[in-house]
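[SOLVED] Need 3D model of a two-part complex

Original post:
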Amino acid sequence: MVDITAATATAGREDLDAYRDRLRAWLADNMPKLDPGVDWDPLHDDDDRASRARELQRRLFDGGFAGICYPREYGGQGLPIEYQRVFDQESMGYELPALFSVPTLSICGPTVLEFGTEAQKQRYIPAFIRGDELWVQFMSEPSGGSDMAGALTRATRDGDVFLLNGSKIWSTYAYRSDFALCLARTNWDVPKHRGLTMFIVPINHPGITVKQIMMVDGTEEFCQEFFDDAAIPAENVLGQVDDGWTVATRLLFHERAAVGGASPYTSGRSAGRAETIGDDLVGLAKARGKADDPLVRRLIGQVEALSIVQGQLAQRVRTGLETGHFPGPAGSLVRLYAGTATVERTNIALEIAGDEAVVWDGDADGRFGIAYIKRQSTSLGGGSTEMARNIISERILGMPREYAADRDVAFREVRRNTMPSSRPTTERSNEGSG
Amino acid sequence: MDLTLSPDQSFFQETTRRFLEGEAPLTRVRELADDPAGFDRGWWRRGAELGWTAFLVPEEHGGGTLSGGRLADLAIVAEEFGRMVSPGPLHPTNIVAGALAASATPEQRAEVLPGIVSGDLVATWCFTEPGGGWRPSDVELAAQRRGDGFVLTGTKAMVEAAGEADWFLVTARVNDGDGGLVQFLLPRDARGLTVTPMRSLDLVRRFGRVRFDDVAVPGTARVGDGDATADVERQLQIGATLECAQMAGAADRVLEFTAAYALDRYSFGRQLASYQALKHRFADMKLWLEATHATVSGAAQAVDGAVGGGNGTRAAGRLGGAGRLVSAAKVYVGDRVPELVQDCVQIHGGIALTWEHDIHLYLRRVTLGRALYGTPDDHRERLAVAAGL
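Solution:
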């Protein structure tokens, strides 16, 4: 049977080249150009960044370039992935709402799109595509990051609501965000993967306390959340009760794609440090009088090669996933590359910067030294590189799985860490903070 | 393997793989280790019939392309050669074919290209010199103007298939005036040209030293007019990309049989592949392999893009961009693939250090590929220049 709707839509669709021309002109007129390096500031104002992201996402929406691959009925553009790729290419060098791209548009959004009821999709998707509502993930817990299915946060059914108790950690900008996807335990009498439920949690909500965490570079983007009998309406369950792991698995798939630059759902791939550190290093080498040092030249050549290949690998994995050549877990390849290449790049920057990376004048910046102090963040965030190596070896190469003591055991019987019982003394409550 | 192969390319890949597995299995490669030529001419002609030497040659001389991406097509062959550590003058013959297609006179093309396509003629490129490097600026072989022609004096080294070549493309430097680069196409029987065999790590890829003792060449032997640096640059890009494609194919095959070995083999009552210390190394190797394929595709497509279409200056600009991607590939592949093969030696254990085990054939091939057309460090320097240093 011929799909008339699809055929008509294709016939009426703007040609890719015309789209590119129109987009290019629109970006030049409407979006701010990025000044490389300016975005890097360990003490930047986080509140401003969140407001800025909302504003930029709204601009994209008004211009008709937000949610390119999201269906039209939920406020997206309903275009095929080639249009997103054109956007990715053309928007390089512009300031983009990176906070919306990850995790709202690329991780939480596609998960809601896949598992949401019609009412949930109508309620939530248009709002984040418009830039009105920012989302985060409540996945990791203080008791451990890699073993996500071992979540201890509990959701107990109480009439029309679930009462949420426990704590989540490593959510980015939760204190400036509106909603979270939260994985909580609803059944303790079954093995760990079968007793979890995914919830759509309003962050600004009674019983939820958000605390910012100061990281080694002075940033306070990461948060920890504390739940004290927070009442979440039952209609906020995403997917089925006790089937949250199915939802989480897809969420992790979208996360791997996003972290590796392979997601089709972003508002562009912001010029992250991976793309700009090469330029920074050329400037650094010149400033330090090392432009003719053969060792330094080789190191910069290495950084260039690493960055070029990183983009090519992301492209290959995207293609592989789209064509079915690669299984879903292939996203772990880009994730592992990002982790290991960042370590190498950061070390090279430290070497070229020399002693100025560790002691500097007030008007200079010590960013290469500080980058080294937080070097491992790219090997930990979004699932550790050790987990990525397990996934690649087990689920791509088909090697035997690691022994797990909690397999096929009721979660109640599993040895586990304890959940912190009390809230911290310094806290920032959403109640009253707006 | 490129994930976007067309049906024609996939069919061609399969045909080439079956031919190599049937007609040049590793037992045959081992036999050829003692053969002075390193390959059989009749076998080479049959390979040429499949298209191995046709992709960089225009249609009017019997060439053709499967996809429009000529080097991408040829990289398929190189990758299959890597998988089977195959013999034959694949790289030098194709580099010369590409060079002649780009810049030779109609007479030169008509004389040589049909023979290359049919496999009757073997050609090679004389570029690097004893003690020299792989940069165009390293070329010192002197071309002295005499009448309408030139006299060549000097020595070239590491000339692949020099012992079998019927035609030599020679890169030289004019030793008067601006000292620019020139290229000539010379037949094997040119007076004053002598070939001495060299030895190499590879069991079947042969190399030689070529001496030019006052070799008189007519003006009609010149390939291209004006400075040949851009032509040389493109030849180097093709050579480096083909070496990377061979290394990709070799890595593919080695990781394949090493993973199978780790799954088959037991120690302490467990499969080798069940140890996390080894699984994590396999994960790293899988990453290196996929990134290798990605960057080889990127390099081949960039060179194809720079060669095809556009006016001269635009193509020259894109040649620079292609050079950057080729260098990135040579850095990454040249670093990671030999390490991958060494890691696989380690995982196999002592058996992998015996002559009987096949893995050293691959280690030899990729160690050669790492160095030819510039080491990773040579290409890091090129990338530093491209980055503005």
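Edit: Chain A touches chain B through 45 residues (CB under 8 Å).
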